[in-house]
Protein backbone atom coordinates (compact mmCIF):
# COMPACT_ATOMS: atom_id res chain seq x y z
CA UNK A 1 0.00 0.00 0.00
CA UNK A 2 1.16 3.52 -0.78
CA UNK A 3 2.56 5.36 2.23
CA UNK A 4 2.96 9.14 2.51
CA UNK A 5 5.16 11.00 4.98
CA UNK A 6 4.28 14.64 5.54
CA UNK A 7 1.93 17.07 7.22
CA UNK A 8 -1.38 18.22 5.73
CA UNK A 9 -0.60 21.93 6.19
CA UNK A 10 2.38 21.74 3.80
CA UNK A 11 1.58 22.97 0.29
CA UNK A 12 3.90 20.34 -1.16
CA UNK A 13 2.23 17.55 0.77
CA UNK A 14 -1.15 18.87 -0.34
CA UNK A 15 -0.15 18.33 -3.97
CA UNK A 16 0.44 14.65 -3.25
CA UNK A 17 -2.64 14.18 -1.07
CA UNK A 18 -4.86 15.77 -3.72
CA UNK A 19 -3.38 13.53 -6.42
CA UNK A 20 -3.90 10.42 -4.32
CA UNK A 21 -7.51 11.38 -3.66
CA UNK A 22 -8.16 12.05 -7.34
CA UNK A 23 -6.85 8.57 -8.10
CA UNK A 24 -8.69 6.95 -5.16
CA UNK A 25 -5.49 5.17 -4.16
CA UNK A 26 -5.49 3.27 -0.85
CA UNK A 27 -2.80 4.81 1.30
CA UNK A 28 -1.57 5.52 4.79
CA UNK A 29 -0.09 8.78 6.05
CA UNK A 30 2.52 9.37 8.74
CA UNK A 31 2.61 12.92 10.05
CA UNK A 32 6.14 14.32 10.08
CA UNK A 33 7.61 17.78 9.74
CA UNK A 34 6.66 21.05 11.39
CA UNK A 35 5.06 20.48 14.80
CA UNK A 36 5.22 16.70 14.29
CA UNK A 37 9.03 16.56 14.01
CA UNK A 38 10.65 13.36 12.85
CA UNK A 39 12.69 14.78 9.97
CA UNK A 40 15.98 14.55 11.84
CA UNK A 41 15.89 10.81 12.46
CA UNK A 42 18.39 8.51 10.72
CA UNK A 43 15.49 6.55 9.23
CA UNK A 44 13.99 9.62 7.58
CA UNK A 45 17.38 10.82 6.38
CA UNK A 46 17.84 7.55 4.50
CA UNK A 47 14.56 8.14 2.66
CA UNK A 48 15.16 11.83 1.94
CA UNK A 49 18.61 13.31 2.59
CA UNK A 50 17.09 16.80 2.24
CA UNK A 51 14.93 16.04 5.32
CA UNK A 52 11.87 17.68 3.84
CA UNK A 53 8.32 16.56 3.10
CA UNK A 54 6.71 14.83 1.33
CA UNK A 55 8.14 11.36 0.81
CA UNK A 56 6.24 8.37 -0.53
CA UNK A 57 6.89 4.66 -0.66
CA UNK A 58 5.02 2.72 -3.35
CA UNK A 59 5.75 -0.89 -4.21
CA UNK A 60 9.27 -0.53 -2.89
CA UNK A 61 9.95 2.79 -4.61
CA UNK A 62 10.89 5.61 -2.25
CA UNK A 63 10.43 9.02 -3.86
CA UNK A 64 10.77 12.65 -2.76
CA UNK A 65 10.14 16.03 -4.45
CA UNK A 66 6.43 16.80 -4.63
CA UNK A 67 6.19 17.49 -8.37
CA UNK A 68 8.12 14.31 -9.17
CA UNK A 69 5.73 12.37 -6.94
CA UNK A 70 2.68 13.87 -8.65
CA UNK A 71 4.12 12.97 -12.07
CA UNK A 72 4.92 9.44 -10.97
CA UNK A 73 1.48 8.77 -9.51
CA UNK A 74 -0.29 10.28 -12.52
CA UNK A 75 1.79 8.29 -15.01
CA UNK A 76 1.57 5.01 -13.11
CA UNK A 77 -2.09 5.10 -12.19
CA UNK A 78 -3.87 7.46 -14.59
CA UNK A 79 -2.21 7.54 -17.99
CA UNK A 80 -4.45 9.46 -20.35
CA UNK A 81 -6.06 11.32 -17.45
CA UNK A 82 -3.99 13.24 -14.91
CA UNK A 83 -1.05 12.16 -17.08
CA UNK A 84 -2.16 13.41 -20.51
CA UNK A 85 -1.70 10.89 -23.31
CA UNK A 86 -0.94 13.58 -25.89
CA UNK A 87 2.70 14.50 -25.41
CA UNK A 88 2.07 18.12 -26.42
CA UNK A 89 -0.70 18.48 -23.84
CA UNK A 90 1.47 16.78 -21.25
CA UNK A 91 4.25 19.26 -22.00
CA UNK A 92 1.85 22.09 -21.21
CA UNK A 93 1.06 20.57 -17.81
CA UNK A 94 4.75 19.89 -17.19
CA UNK A 95 5.75 23.44 -18.06
CA UNK A 96 3.33 25.00 -15.59
CA UNK A 97 4.32 22.54 -12.86
CA UNK A 98 7.95 23.61 -13.27
CA UNK A 99 6.97 27.29 -13.47
CA UNK A 100 5.08 26.92 -10.22
CA UNK A 101 8.13 25.48 -8.47
CA UNK A 102 10.78 27.80 -9.89
CA UNK A 103 8.80 31.04 -10.12
CA UNK A 104 5.44 31.44 -8.40
CA UNK A 105 5.83 29.28 -5.30
CA UNK A 106 9.36 30.46 -4.58
CA UNK A 107 8.37 34.12 -5.02
CA UNK A 108 5.56 33.63 -2.53
CA UNK A 109 7.70 32.22 0.28
CA UNK A 110 8.87 35.48 1.96
CA UNK A 111 5.33 36.90 2.05
CA UNK A 112 3.89 33.64 3.32
CA UNK A 113 6.49 33.17 6.04
CA UNK A 114 6.28 36.81 7.06
CA UNK A 115 2.49 37.08 7.21
CA UNK A 116 1.56 33.58 8.38
CA UNK A 117 4.45 32.27 10.46
CA UNK A 118 6.13 35.40 11.87
CA UNK A 119 4.76 37.48 14.76
CA UNK A 120 3.75 40.93 13.55
CA UNK A 121 6.43 42.74 15.58
CA UNK A 122 9.17 40.65 13.95
CA UNK A 123 8.05 40.93 10.33
CA UNK A 124 10.27 42.31 7.59
CA UNK A 125 7.82 44.64 5.88
CA UNK A 126 10.10 45.34 2.92
CA UNK A 127 10.61 41.64 2.20
CA UNK A 128 6.87 40.98 2.45
CA UNK A 129 6.09 43.87 0.11
CA UNK A 130 8.65 42.77 -2.48
CA UNK A 131 7.46 39.18 -2.32
CA UNK A 132 3.82 40.22 -2.65
CA UNK A 133 4.57 42.43 -5.65
CA UNK A 134 6.47 39.65 -7.45
CA UNK A 135 3.87 37.03 -6.58
CA UNK A 136 1.07 39.22 -7.93
CA UNK A 137 2.98 39.86 -11.15
CA UNK A 138 3.36 36.13 -11.64
CA UNK A 139 -0.30 35.58 -10.82
CA UNK A 140 -1.12 37.82 -13.78
CA UNK A 141 0.97 35.57 -16.04
CA UNK A 142 -1.23 32.65 -14.97
CA UNK A 143 -4.32 34.81 -15.47
CA UNK A 144 -3.26 35.46 -19.04
CA UNK A 145 -2.53 31.76 -19.66
CA UNK A 146 -6.01 30.76 -18.48
CA UNK A 147 -7.84 33.08 -20.86
CA UNK A 148 -10.28 31.02 -22.91
CA UNK A 149 -9.40 27.66 -21.36
CA UNK A 150 -10.92 25.58 -18.59
CA UNK A 151 -7.70 24.05 -17.31
CA UNK A 152 -4.03 24.85 -17.60
CA UNK A 153 -3.30 22.27 -20.31
CA UNK A 154 -6.56 22.78 -22.19
CA UNK A 155 -10.04 21.36 -21.78
CA UNK A 156 -9.20 18.54 -19.36
CA UNK A 157 -8.08 18.55 -15.72
CA UNK A 158 -4.50 17.28 -15.34
CA UNK A 159 -1.59 16.98 -12.94
CA UNK A 160 -0.64 20.57 -13.80
CA UNK A 161 -3.87 21.88 -12.30
CA UNK A 162 -3.20 20.07 -9.03
CA UNK A 163 0.23 21.62 -8.54
CA UNK A 164 -0.86 25.08 -9.66
CA UNK A 165 -4.10 24.82 -7.70
CA UNK A 166 -2.39 24.16 -4.37
CA UNK A 167 -0.19 27.23 -4.76
CA UNK A 168 -3.08 29.34 -6.04
CA UNK A 169 -5.04 28.35 -2.95
CA UNK A 170 -2.25 29.68 -0.77
CA UNK A 171 -1.99 32.92 -2.77
CA UNK A 172 -5.72 33.55 -2.64
CA UNK A 173 -5.89 32.84 1.10
CA UNK A 174 -3.03 35.11 2.17
CA UNK A 175 -4.04 38.48 3.69
CA UNK A 176 -2.68 40.59 0.84
CA UNK A 177 -4.07 42.85 -1.87
CA UNK A 178 -4.26 41.08 -5.22
CA UNK A 179 -5.06 42.25 -8.75
CA UNK A 180 -8.32 41.24 -10.38
CA UNK A 181 -7.94 37.79 -11.98
CA UNK A 182 -11.34 36.70 -13.34
CA UNK A 183 -10.03 33.81 -15.47
CA UNK A 184 -7.83 32.52 -12.66
CA UNK A 185 -10.67 32.88 -10.15
CA UNK A 186 -13.08 30.96 -12.39
CA UNK A 187 -10.49 28.21 -12.88
CA UNK A 188 -9.89 28.06 -9.12
CA UNK A 189 -13.62 27.70 -8.46
CA UNK A 190 -13.73 24.78 -10.89
CA UNK A 191 -10.87 23.13 -9.02
CA UNK A 192 -12.46 23.65 -5.62
CA UNK A 193 -15.66 21.96 -6.80
CA UNK A 194 -13.75 18.70 -7.14
CA UNK A 195 -14.36 16.45 -4.11
CA UNK A 196 -10.69 15.48 -3.94
CA UNK A 197 -9.62 19.12 -3.61
CA UNK A 198 -12.20 19.87 -0.94
CA UNK A 199 -10.78 17.06 1.14
CA UNK A 200 -7.29 18.57 1.08
CA UNK A 201 -7.44 22.36 0.82
CA UNK A 202 -9.52 22.88 3.93
CA UNK A 203 -7.04 23.79 6.66
CA UNK A 204 -6.26 27.42 7.51
CA UNK A 205 -2.82 28.55 6.43
CA UNK A 206 -0.18 27.72 9.02
From TrEMBL:
GO terms for molecular function: glutathione transferase activity. Residues 1-81 form the GST N-terminal domain. Pfam families: GST_C_2, GST_N_2. Its EC number is 2.5.1.18. InterPro entries: Glutathione-S-Trfase_C-like, Glutathione-S-Trfase_C_sf, Glutathione_S-Trfase, Glutathione_S-Trfase_N, Thioredoxin-like_sf. Keywords: Transferase. CDD domains: GST_C_2, GST_N_2. It comes from the Bacteria. Gene3D superfamilies: 1.20.1050.10, Glutaredoxin. The keyword Transferase applies. Residues 86-206 form the GST C-terminal domain. Belongs to the GST superfamily. This is Probable glutathione S-transferase. It comes from Bordetella petrii (strain ATCC BAA-461 / DSM 12804 / CCUG 43448 / CIP 107267 / Se-1111R).
Amino acid sequence: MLKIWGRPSSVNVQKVLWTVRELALPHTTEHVGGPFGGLDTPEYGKMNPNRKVPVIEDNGLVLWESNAIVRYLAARYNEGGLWPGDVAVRAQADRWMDWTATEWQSAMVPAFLGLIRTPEAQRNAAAIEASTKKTNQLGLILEDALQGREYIAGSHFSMGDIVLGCVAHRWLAMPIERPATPALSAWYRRLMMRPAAQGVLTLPLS
